[in-house]
User: What shape does this take?
Amino acid sequence: MKVIKPSFSIEEEIDPKKIMSVIEKAGRTCYKSESGISDGSAENFIANILKRGHESVIEHEKITVRIICDRGVSHELVRHRIASFSQESTRYCNYSKDRFGGELTFIKPCFWNEENEEDRNKYNIWKESMEFIEKQYNKLIETGAKPEEARALLPNSLKTEIVVTMNLRQWRHFFKLRTDLASHPQMREIAGEILTEFKKLLPAVFSDI
Assistant: This one.
């Protein structure tokens, strides 16, 4: 059994200057102000249209991200509309096979601090439960059960990989919802990490979130 932390990677090479240029050209079409394009003009133009709520312009660009999280978080992810998802399938992945190391991988819950005795007890209960599930999953496979049958045992804590593509407007909507204090702690954990990276890449689009 493995226990890992959530993570992400951007699946394409991002050229911030090119992205900003495409958005600026599209946006300026509305005003026929293409003559105002110059070095550095895109940032101010895009920041201004976003302040005015004209977010449809940034739909012209998208970003694809591979997210490693637990299945509970992935269930919330796929509720977002105008997005494309490709997810690791528990129906077809046989975790007892060598390519998975013959073991299940789980995402470590972020809400228990193991330095605190009460939280450590909760974490240990969780860990023991995951170990039991792994044992029973492998036992089912050994008795001839198909992965699509054995997956009935698998919990929300199971690690999954999901590739997510959204246009920039949808990413903004996603971050506003999923970094809010009302969101689930594990969703907020990975959404915050992605937002931090997006702010570095495209500050004019994401810095106000």
Observations:
- Strands lie at 2-4, 7-10, 62-70, 83-87, 105-107, 159-167.
- The mean pLDDT is 96.
- The first strand starts at residue 2 and ends at 4.
- Residues 172 and 206 are 7 Å apart (CA to CA).
